[in-house]
Amino acid sequence: MSPSCATVPHRVRTEWRTSNKFTPAIKVHPYRNRCGLSRRDFATKGIVAAGASVMPSTLVSQPAQGLERLPFKNDGYNFWTWRGHKIHYVVEGQGFPIVLIHGFGASAFHWRYNIPELAKKYKVYAVDLLGFGWSEKALVDYDALVWRDQVADFLKEIVKEPTILVGNSLGGFTALVAAEAMPQQVVGIALLNSAGQFGSSDDVTTEAEESTVQKFILKPLKEIFQRVVLGFLFWQAKQPARVESVLKSVYKNTSNVDDYLIQSITKPADDPNAGEVYYRLMSRFMSNQKKYTLDSVLSKLSCPLLLVWGDLDPWVGPTKAIRIKEFYPNTTVVNLQAGHCPHDEVPEAVNKALVDWLSTLPSTYDASQTL
């Protein structure tokens, strides 16, 4: 990892609301994070994880009280068959379409406070990625391109018109690669503490040829060891107490870490194939993140980008948002005093940031021409 990717103490301008005015204040954030979520973070901390201008930072510490919340349904909402697999999604509202993509280990229900509010002005879709939530726990080789293709086909077959993609964590990187695949349909992207790493000149691109000993002895033994260890970690990670503990470590304001949220994560983990999916994700996908880098994807985009960043995220700090903006100038940044999942921790602030940004995009109010 390059030194520029590490989070170092830096000065951040934060605006404190007093009455009807903002009072600027300078805070120092001494967080030390990496630009991307590591394989170890996901494995050891649970199944929860995923024109240049700067908008004012906002300090929000109040819980989501009084906001309408998407009703939790044990059997889910709507289902779509994609390549023979059952895919779950929620759709609410009318108007210009927005597609919400959850993070690692989460589901469409993680947008519980965002869907009802955004649906007042837009047609909101929230889709469960294959292997997560109420979507099928398919036994496939998981790769960034699997979710890219799923989202791209969802846009073509279900949404069928120009769209804004919004993604948190793993869902953020999925939104980026899907936008790259569908440049004519994706007219804007919003990332909330997105996963993904910038490439490094030190990355090794060549692989040594496997010897007979490596291929037939060492590799199988390594896989057996991984299965034992990851099997135990999965069992531990899906325990409600463990899920609650992990959530509280990434929500700086833990008011919204409740039974609804915990159940939306633990219920899908009871699927018979969930353990095998977890193994495939941890042993293959998470160990091969360098294959697709943020710079390689961003260099192929042309649509407006919004970064809504929880600066107190212990996994993906604000330095990553700064680097994305430096690399991709057509970016608007909103910094929030929140953790890894600002859309659920401080939903009022995130909803406002999204609506304010969407109102500046001509495509969101001139969508009469469909594809």
Automatic annotation (TrEMBL):
<dbReference type="GO" id="GO:0009507">
    <property type="term" value="C:chloroplast"/>
</dbReference>
<dbReference type="GO" id="GO:0016787">
    <property type="term" value="F:hydrolase activity"/>
</dbReference>
<dbReference type="InterPro" id="IPR029058">
    <property type="entry name" value="AB_hydrolase_fold"/>
</dbReference>
<dbReference type="InterPro" id="IPR000073">
    <property type="entry name" value="AB_hydrolase_1"/>
</dbReference>
<protein>
    <recommendedName>
        <fullName>AB hydrolase-1 domain-containing protein</fullName>
    </recommendedName>
</protein>
<feature type="domain" description="AB hydrolase-1">
    <location>
        <begin position="97"/>
        <end position="345"/>
    </location>
</feature>
<dbReference type="Pfam" id="PF00561">
    <property type="entry name" value="Abhydrolase_1"/>
</dbReference>
